Amino acid sequence: MNSPRRSERVSSPSLLSFLDAPLVVGDPDGCAAYVNPAFEARFAVSAETVIGQPLASLFEGGVREMVLHAVAQVCACGASQRFRVRHAGVGYAGLASPIVAEDARVGVVILFNESAPDDERAHRLQREAQSSVEAIDTAFEEIVDRIADSPDAKLRDLLSEAGKAVGELRRCTGELGDVLAGRRPAAPREQGFDPSRVASGLAAGLTEEFAAAGVGLDVRMPAQLPVVYGDAVGFREALEGLLRARLAALESGTSLVLAARTVERDAAVWVVLALKEPPPSGAADEPPQWVIDRVAVLGGDVRVSSHPKSGRTTAIRLHAQNQ
């Protein structure tokens, strides 16, 4: 006598029949092996007709897509997957979990927990917020493209701050969606920054201080530089310390040029920010040690060169992400 199939054993009476939440068991072949009475009632199916049928035949439209995607992820990763669906006007928080058959193939148990009204509202608000952020982001990018070359340093600084705020808002709405869906946070990733934006914003804030000392500050910064991964605040503090050190060393009536460029060498990309000033009257002093240390934390270095005719150059070199 042949041994009973797994689906026949699973469909025998059990505690699963007493669950108020709809539940489906799928076998390793992707077919329904068991549905409990709650599933029959909520999804308007009969266990007699669906047992042995593909899981896809139990659902329709967007519900089918979400369920099948979750099942595929469970089979591929061997870990539970959370998802959300709406059926017959009711929202459900779904949980698909793996089960292992005798032959080591993976099946799945899918549980549908009805969402509370407040929970549904929170998800709806998150989706609306995310849609609004995407619209703001698109409009902001168009504004940046139109006025990126504006000579107004204050305007460039405001654009930089607005860009950071939009990025932070995008991150928050994404994380909120993960929290509501019950997804675990991803491992933290080191943040990147555009040195040109940080430098331009900093220079704009120091313009009055330089003017009060009678020293000109000429910023020659491209609209965008390759991304540098690390602490943007640490970079800003180091550059500010360097600018203030040079300001203290320069005489009234002189000027300081802050420029930047990208250098590619041996398949590596470097961003170089240079402070150029007139030839020193005496011995060239070194940058503050704390500035050198702060740049070193970013994986970069500070170099000083001096020439009787071309003047003194203090350069910060940072390793950038390949574009």
Describe what you observe in this structure.
Helix 8 packs antiparallel against helix 9. The protein folds into three domains: 109 residues, PAS domain (Beta-Lactamase), CATH 3.30.450; 63 residues; 129 residues, Histidine kinase-like ATPase, C-terminal domain (Heat Shock Protein 90), CATH 3.30.565.10. The N and C termini lie far apart (66 Å). It has a five-stranded antiparallel beta sheet. With 323 residues, it is an alpha+beta fold. The longest helix is centred in the middle third of the chain and has 31 residues.
CATH architecture of the largest domain: 2-Layer Sandwich
Q: Distance between termini? A: 66 Å
Largest β-sheet summary: 5 strands, antiparallel
| Integer tally of domains | 3
Mean pLDDT figure = 81
Task: Give a short overview.
The protein is an alpha+beta fold and 323 residues long. It is built from 9 helices and 12 strands. A hairpin with a 3-residue loop joins β11 (301-307) and β12.
Write the layout of secondary structure elements.
Elements: H1 6-10, E1 23-26, E2 32-35, H2 37-42, H3 47-50, H4 61-77, E3 81-87, E4 90-100, E5 106-114, H5 117-147, H6 153-181, E6 192-193, H7 195-212, E7 216-220, E8 228-229, H8 232-249, E9 255-265, E10 268-277, H9 289-297, E11 301-307, E12 311-320
Features of the shown structure:
five-stranded antiparallel beta sheet, 9 helices, Heat Shock Protein 90, 3 domains, Beta-Lactamase, disordered N terminus, five-stranded mixed beta sheet, 323 residues, alpha+beta
